[in-house]
Amino acid sequence: MKLEELKLGPRDEKQLAELISRFGFKSWPKEAARDTAPPPAASPLPVRADPEERRYETLFEEADLARWVKDLEAAELVAFDTETTSLDPMQARLVGMSFSVLAGRAAYLPLAHNYAGAPGQLGVERALALLKPWLENEARRKLGQNIKYDQHVLANHGVALRGVAHDTLLESYVLESHARHDMDSLATRHLGLKTLTYDEVTGTGVGRIPFEQVDVARAAAYAAEDADLTLRIHHALLPKLEAAEKLLYVYGSIELPAREVLFRMERDGVLIDAAQLEAMSHELGQKMLELENKAHKEAGQPFNLGSPKQIAEIFFEKKGMPVIKKTPSGAPSTDEDVLERLALDHPLAKMLLDYREISKLKSTYTDKLPKMVNPRTGRVHTNYGQATAVTGRLASNDPNLQNIPVRTPEGRRIREAFVASRGNAIVSADYSQVELRIMAHISEDENLLRAFAAGEDIHRATAAEVFGRSLRDVTSEERRYAKVINFGLIYGMSAFGLAQQLGLERATAQAYIASYFTRYPAVAKYMEETRKTARERGYVETVFGRRLWLPEIKSSNPARRGGAERAAINAPMQGTAADLIKLAMIAVRGWLDRERLSTKLIMQVHDELVLEAPDAELDRVRAEIPELMSGVAKLKVPLVVDVGSGQNWEKAH
DNA sequence: TAAGTCACG
DNA sequence: ACGTACGTGACTTAT
To answer: How many CA atoms lie within 13 A of A557 on its CB side?
Structure first.
């Protein structure tokens, strides 16, 4: 599959038909499904009449595997799963593999089970030698449940998995992003079957054993079932996607190709200057000790500065500071907002604020990141969760590279440790004000569209409208207020929330909101329409048709219902932005491949792409990436992209 | 394991 | 009268 062929609009039927034939989709509905549509017809692919009838084999001999390889080569689509030594995709080694070509029929290939009395097995090397031609053949279509993981495992053994046609994780995510997507949940929801779970096979907690110590017969029952059920779940889910044109687009033209891009980003990793971070850790540790001593002295007693409970005792009981707000459980809050207010009168609160900032940086970043460097590659490899965020965004974990500090000077020193390798530069390209632009596009508010078309500073423009000034008369404080209002709009704010954020009377905040909606009436209409749509259909959509379900939109609990309404307002904007940057990643990766460039995509931070470019490619990359990112969709507003480069991530901003 | 807090967009 | 800005992941403390 060539990535560049997947840049199509959701309603380009001819190209969509082409796409469908490439993915081998079986049918194409005349109309997109409505939410009231009946459940889709049964899968056209073969499913055994009796779902309980299963024929699972365990492959011990080379002849057994050779017979299966023949079937794999001949099959239209093969469900495939790996069993491994670790959940860390970059560390995991193969213990076994399973395959299914037909619902109810599957094989487990034990390779490296290692316990007293374990049966003889083929071994990883011999098995991969036999399987490699199939695994690496783009034309042999494979299916998995979170197959990005299996692709890493195979890559750890020098095998380049090709021909990934489907992933049940992504199918489920596109259909119901809010639901669980683990195998057990999918089997229960879509097949009405109870599965053997990983925990049941390996145990939990201290009793957990590594998969290589799991009895082969038991492992076979588990692993073969996984492959079997993956295929059956696919047969259940793909028709549902095919019945809704836009969902099929999101799945086939956004999520599946993005999956491959994410694999490469994770694999390539990012270079950090571990020594620099370690030196910083030492420095921060010294500062923490100093602040701790100062705070203990000020408090008149030692206490654990990391314990909100102990802080509350000192602050609110011993010192009699006012309780400004409470946590959800009713305890007095000591969060940043509270400490900032208390700091006006109490030096101890300021000390704690300083301590919190430093300890956060140390414990989460400067201590941890150096330990996350992969010894083989010398780089840090995050894992991007592609089915985690309900809105369509990615999530980054182990380590999270999407929350690296940037807002404070001390924090930005951590960004300086994200560096380019010798002869390369870091390039950062981010969408400017993308969610507000999407709000303008969806609401079609003339005033907002005009401001973006004119290239105005959007917060300044908002301030001019809300406060009745000319653009040049807007004060910096008015602009700051307008910026808060703009963020609030994206989050579905209330007058109460705005007042709290700006430290105003609620009535004043309400007046600002009223003024905003007078000047941008189509935005007000959009907000109301979105609430209505959410109530009527139970979901909202992004510009590309990604669906976000809101199970609590009709809740009788006003707090829950209100939360669902705010999520409904936010989701089209956050989700469309997520769609756009995924399309951009696909476009960028396609361009780099076509042009045979060595530049790597190394990070995605929601509205920003970070690349590592050889010096010889830097000029081309700096020129082309913004064009590619801007060009992924033609909205009613320009998509502006800012680009920068430098020796480290901080300098590239 | 839950709660509280805080890093990011 | 009530609760009150969207979406994440990770760390520490306390149970």
So the answer is: 6
A439-479 pLDDT, tens digit per residue, is 999 999 999 999 999 999 999 999 999 999 999 999 999 99
3-state secondary structure of A367: coil
Instruction: Please give the full DSSP string across A385-422, using - where no structure is assigned.
Output: ESSS-TTS--EEESS--S----SSHHHHHHHTTBBPPT
User: What is the average pLDDT across A560-575?
Assistant: 97
The residue among A148, A151, A153, A152 whose CA lies nearest residue A173 is A148
**Cα–Cα distance, A194 to A396 (Å, whole number):** 31
**Residue A21, both tokens:** 């034939």
Distances (CA, A) of A279 to A285, A362, A368, A374: 10, 11, 13, 19
d(CA A180, CA A189): 10
Angle at A74 (CA atoms; ends A72, A79), nearest 5 degrees: 40
Q: What one-letter code names the amino acid at A201?
A: V
Residue where the block lists tokens 């500090």: A405
Q: What percent of the residues of chain A are helix, what percent strand, and what percent coil, each to the nearest 5? A: 55, 10, 35
Strand spans (E) along A156-272:
164-167
Asked if residue A604 lies in contact with residue A583, where contact means CB atoms within 8 angstroms, the answer is: no
Give the H/E segment covering residue A424.
strand A424-431
Q: Which of A645, A641, A597 is closest to A419 using CA atoms?
A: A645
Q: What is the Cβ-side half-sphere exposure of residue A209, based on CA atoms within 13 angstroms?
A: 12
Vertex A416: Cα angle to A385 and A644 (nearest 5): 80
Torsion region of A552: left, alpha or beta (phi above 0 gives left; psi -120 to 50 gives alpha): alpha
Q: Which two tokens stand for residue A384?
A: 């991007």
Strand B contact nucleotides, protein CB < 7 Å: 3-9
Residue nearest to nucleotide C3 (CA to C1'): A559
Q: In a 3-state reduction of DSSP, which class is residue A602?
A: strand
- Strands A641-646 and A424-431 turn out to be antiparallel
Kindly give, in sequence order, each residue whose CB lies less than 8 Å from that of residue A307, ignoring residues fewer than 6 positions away.
Answer: none
- Sheet order of strands, A164-167 included: A55-58, A105-110, A94-102, A78-84, A142-144, A164-167
**3 state SS for A323-350:** CCCECCCCCECCCHHHHHHHHCCCHHHH
Question: Which residues, including other chains, have CB under 8 Å from residue A500's CB and lie 6 or more apart?
Answer: none
Shortest-distance nucleotide from A575 CA to C1'? C7
CA→C1' distance for A210 and B2 (Å): 28
- The residue whose CA lies nearest the C1' of nucleotide C12 is A306
Over 80: is that where the pLDDT of A6 sits? no
Write out pLDDT tens, residues A9-35.
333 333 333 333 333 333 322 222 222
CB-strand contact A499/C, under 7 Å: no
Residue A78, token pair as written in the block: 């093969």
pLDDT digits (tens, 9 = 90+) for A152-208: 999 999 999 999 999 999 999 999 999 999 999 999 999 999 999 999 999 887 888
